[in-house]
Structures are given as structure tokens and as C-alpha cells.
Design goal:
CATH class of the largest domain: Alpha Beta
Order of helices and strands: HHHEEEEEHHEEEEHHHHEE
Distance between the termini: 62 Å
Strand content: 15-25%
Strand order of the largest sheet: 1-2-3-4-5
Helix content: 25-40%
Shape: elongated
CATH superfamily of the largest domain: Ubiquitin Conjugating Enzyme
Number of domains: 3
Radius of gyration: 25 Å
Number of strands: 11
Length: 316
């Protein structure tokens, strides 16, 4: 029986091993087959990595889980509020570990190569601690606002699109320091636009983002999504399956390789048609003869109501 078969038998025999016991068993198998770290095969990891994992679980109390192979590892960091932040790591060879994914805003830390799992844990522990205000602001928005996008918001998403009324959403991004940036409206409304322009001049970064939004837009309570039942609590995913927002051009809720939802981009308040920004942009470009628009803004007539409409390929 070769070493891969022995490991498969160990992992699949149905016994509920604790992680330290499992690591000792794996180490015993690997020790018999591997003399130096240079002999690591595509299915195995070196002994030093085993010791790294064992020390973290035994002395640092860091939850660590193996994936489908021994080279795929998930470790979980807890912040001061006991939020769980999983980090998915891939073992590429002795002293060569990379980050596969994290549910955090993108950072250069994710693009580095690391020597040990311990180095990853403590690097990201400091990073997570520095994001405490960022987490707090996003949690407050998710708790008190009707978030239209992302459909299933996480800490990886550093923006939120908040419902102001049936046709207008507020786009707001949150910096790693927990400050608001790139605040703008999705949809056309002179009322909301005037309030935003005036309010941005008095925006107070010493106050919470929620407090600033309520002050700027003179809100007591944030509106609820009228398409969501007031008596039945359902998830955003279930709501979109029952009553999805469809693009008036492609007639789809989502685009391939994109999670962007159709938006109320027409300035005509009686139109009621939603469009993917990319679909509308391409429609206007094609209607105008196919030539690239000046300054990246395509203009023309709304495909639904024929009112004048403009669309930038990217958000403002």
C-alpha cells in the first residue's frame, strides 16, 4: 500500500479523530515514506508544515481544517467581537503557502507568498484587528438599511446599494478605515440628488455612516423593499427567485460572470423598467451607430419609454 492509499484509508475510515491525533497519524505515515522535504509529492505536504499546524492548534487554539487534499487548508481567525474570518490557504511546496481566498476587502497581503501557516495567521490577525471600524460600519448598514446590492452582502464586499425609494438607490463604499467614499445615487431624482449634493458638504466623518445618511436625506426610518412581503420573512436569494428584477434588454436577472443586478437607470419616474448598466450602454452605443461615445457616456432614448437617457459604462 503506497502512502496516498494509507492517507485515504485514514481519512475515510469513519473514526472521529481530534485534529492533534489526526496530525500525529498523518505524520507517522509521511515519516515512513519521506526522508527530506525535497521529496514532497503532489498529494503530500512536508513534515515541517505538519508541525506548524499542530503547534497552532495545540498552543494558539486556532481552528484549522483540511480540505479535499492535505494541501488545502482553512483556518479561522476570531476578532475582538468574536466574528469568524476564514482564510483559505493552498500549500504549494516547502515554505510556499499562498492565500486562495478570504472574506475580507482585497489587500496586498492576499497576493504575497508565505513561509509558514503561523506567519499567515498572525499577519491576518493584525489585519483583521485594523478593520474593526470597517466591520462595524457595514454591520450597521446591513442591519438598519434595505440593501439591494450585493444580493448576499459579506465583509468582502466593500460597498452597499441602499434603497431610498422604489426607483432610487444610494451607492456607498466603505474604506478599510471605516469611512464613506464614492457616495452617489443609482437612478434619477432631482429631490434626492439635491439633498445628497447639499449633504455631502456637511458630511461628518466623526459620525457613523448611518447617522450621516439619515441626516443628509432627512430620514427617520429606512424604507422597506415593496416587493418583499411585510408578513413573511424570506432571504434575499429566495425573494429574487420568486420575484426577480429583470433587465428590460436581456430579460435576465444576472449576467454571465457578473453579479450586477438590473438598476432603475431611466430618469422617467413612470417608466418602471430596470436595466443592466452594461446592457443599456451597449444598446445606446449600437443605436447610435456603434461608434464609441465621447467621454465614455452613451446617450439616446430609453428602450422602454423612448425618453432621453444617458449611461456610463462604469459607475460614477
Amino acid at each position: 500500500m503506497d502512502v496516498v492509499e494509507e492517507i485515504e484509508n485514514l481519512l475515510q475510515n469513519g473514526n472521529n479523530y481530534s485534529l492533534p491525533v489526526l496530525l500525529d497519524s498523518l505524520k507517522s505515515i509521511v515519516t515512513k515514506k519521506i526522508c527530506t522535504t525535497e521529496a514532497v509529492t503532489a498529494d503530500l505536504i512536508d513534515l515541517e508544515f505538519f508541525e506548524d499546524v499542530k503547534n497552532l492548534t495545540a498552543y494558539e487554539n486556532i481552528p484549522i481544517y483540511f480540505g479535499k487534499t492535505l494541501r488545502d487548508v482553512k483556518c479561522v481567525i476570531l476578532d475582538e467581537r468574536l466574528r469568524e474570518h476564514p482564510i483559505f490557504v493552498s500549500y504549494k511546496g516547502p515554505k510556499k503557502l499562498i492565500i486562495k481566498s478570504v472574506i475580507l476587502p482585497h489587500s496586498p497581503l492576499q497576493d504575497r507568498e508565505y513561509s509558514t501557516l503561523e506567519e499567515i495567521i498572525f499577519t491576518f490577525k493584525r489585519h483583521v484587528d485594523s478593520l474593526s471600524t470597517y466591520f462595524h460600519e457595514l454591520e450597521r448598514i446591513d442591519r438598519f438599511c434595505t440593501v439591494m446590492e450585493p444580493a448576499e452582502p459579506t465583509f468582502k464586499d466593500d460597498f452597499r446599494r441602499i434603497l431610498l425609494d422604489d426607483r432610487i438607490w444610494l451607492h456607498i463604499e466603505v474604506t478599510p478605515d471605516g469611512l464613506a467614499s464614492n457616495v452617489h445615487l443609482v437612478g434619477q431624482s432631482d429631490l434626492w440628488s439635491n439633498r445628497l449634493q447639499q449633504g455631502l458638504l456637511s458630511w461628518d466623518h466623526d459620525k457613523e455612516i448611518i447617522e450621516n445618511i439619515t441626516t443628509v436625506f432627512d430620514l427617520v426610518n429606512f424604507p422597506a423593499d415593496s416587493r418583499k412581503s411585510s408578513t413573511t420573512t424570506i432571504s434575499t436569494e429566495d425573494r429574487l427567485m420568486v420575484d426577480p428584477i429583470l433587465c428590460g434588454i436581456c430579460l435576465c436577472a444576472e449576467l454571465p460572470e457578473s453579479s450586477a443586478m438590473p438598476l432603475p437607470l431611466c430618469p422617467n419616474l413612470l417608466c418602471g423598467t430596470y436595466f443592466h448598466r452594461n446592457c443599456l450602454f451597449q444598446w445606446l452605443v449600437s443605436s447610435g451607430g456603434g461608434r464609441p461615445p465621447a467621454f465614455g457616456v452613451a446617450t439616446g432614448s430609453c428602450p422602454a419609454c423612448i425618453e432621453p437617457i444617458a449611461c456610463c459604462e462604469r459607475d460614477a
